[in-house]
């Protein structure tokens, strides 16, 4: 990114009520730092405008999927009890990846990527289910899973910020290393969780709603507030949109980057507890390819892979859409291969639609409208 | 039959074994290595039989680096079985991460001139040439579980029966349906990784046997041989089949997750059959407090048998109970059905 000292401080820009129309920062970032700053700015407003429209489109997709399910399996959908059960089963299916995706969304908005999330979930899960950890009870298991997730995320962040490793490389290395360590700790065995509190997280309901769904809701709500209502969130957008401008604006970009990866790691720790509860066990191969699920969900939710834009609600909808597809294929007895092809198609379609939309918006508004503030 | 990734299909369950310190991050870790149980070897010493000490034999052994319990059990069993013979010298080489690394390791093994080589290849096709080379050099090769395509590349082939697992699971189910007078049962299947030949063979054996008896599979989901994927797919399968009569899950390790999903969904109207024969599954069957009522085996005890037979080959002896003067060329283990009635006999073979 070019150095543009004349740009208004990125942080302030992000906080100001925006006046420019929504733009795609990736498209404009190359033009100048100034345009990128404006891109962040418009994201901030876009959360209410463009973001909401995007999310409405995702809800539309979700409804279409549900209608397809209701038509193809009308025998099941005619039973209201089953329909309610099915909604809960989709939300439970989405819960673990959903929590991981919240962390991933922050990292991607902040201009990074975290390929190690699945491996962190596995490491934290394995760590918290060793015989020694289980002897400390549920509290010890939860504490160790969260601590391991946070610590691994911190290592990622430090390597990227201060070790100057490209995020792709640093987290790829962590993916391999963390799974290796998990395999070493567990001696490649499946570690059964005997803790009834942990296992109960996946089998117990409160007011008819599974506890896992409450955890997902809590993490999503916390993520939404953090992104949209705090300085931390605005800084994240600023750092992702244009790190150089953010640095000149006085943001400690390196420290902020460390915090973003630590946050992602913490989400993985939470997810590890949830997944361990669901499977009543943990092993080094668990949470296989969650990194791709989380990235895909964030992207179809409208998070820009180059950073600077994204919404938590969009990411959540992305996860729920994928879970609904899985459910749709399962209740129709269709093969996993077909399901994966459809998922791939939806990712491509979602990104294509977004590009078309933004290009037309850009053309409509002209190319030099970005001199706001 | 190539089975590159059979590795993925077996994992040992953690019972006992040490672990890593809780809470405090930097607690030291120790390994979970377990000694194979006494019964996975066959004690030497009965007079008059094959176990009588004979000519001294050096057995070279190579299996892929253990990435899960089943392979770990293979290596442990081989080592322990060799240890029971006073006339066997056991040399093992680490097979590394892939077929190329294993080939390199094996060439160092050949230079040590073992009398027999016991080999679980990364990939039977890729290591076929090595088998030929060793056989041509006069070293008999015992192929463990992953067959060489060329019959000249091995002296003895000993392996499990994936198709037979499906047949055994279906046979058990059919008997149950008959006993319960079910004419149109709803049958579910949770497979392992679908792209693997071993999964396809298991599913084919299962489907063939059910079809022949006039039944059909109502829904089938493929998991990934891990407990969390088993839970995920089972939860969806249960959603798709609000009422089910029987469920076959290909792998007992992923079965931990399948049972968790069944418990979470509060379902108990059906019975479940497992696969592979893990210790945990056998204990569950014995306790009879879950839907898991049976499991069909694919036992890593084959490694112990391979060492015993390699010793006989090296000594030029046959199997004492058979008429032939030499060890046979091919042995395929039967997939056995473990139920509450016979689980106590099999517990010692659980991994």
What would the keywords be for this entry?
heterodimer, A: about 375 residues, mainly alpha, ABC transporter involved in vitamin B12 uptake, BtuC, two-stranded antiparallel sheet, two-stranded antiparallel ribbon, globular, disordered N terminus, disordered C terminus, B: about 350 residues, alpha/beta, Rossmann fold, 2 domains, six-stranded parallel beta sheet, six-stranded mixed beta sheet, about 35% helix
What would your notes on this structure say?
The complex is a heterodimer of chains A (373) and B (351). Chain A has a single domain, classed as ABC transporter involved in vitamin B12 uptake, BtuC (Orthogonal Bundle). Chain A is built from 18 helices and 4 strands. Chain A has helices at 10-15, 25-29, 33-46, 50-72, 74-77, 80-109, 117-128, 131-134, 137-161, 167-186, 196-203, 211-229, 231-241, 243-248, 253-279, 290-300, 312-331, 336-365, and strands spanning 191-192, 205-206, 209-210, 281-282. Chain B has 351 residues and is α/β, with parallel strands linked by helices. Chain B folds into 2 domains: 4-14 and 35-159 and 301-332, Response regulator (Rossmann fold, 3-Layer(aba) Sandwich); 162-297, 3-Layer(aba) Sandwich (Rossmann fold), CATH 3.40.50.2300. Chain B has 10 helices and 12 strands. A 6-stranded parallel β-sheet of chain B has the order 2-1-3-4-5-11, with helices on both faces. In chain B, strand 8, helix 7 (252-264) and strand 9 form a beta-alpha-beta unit. Chain B is elongated. At the A-B interface, helix 6, helix 8, helix 9, helix 10 and strand 1 of A face helix 1, strand 7, helix 6 and helix 7 of B.
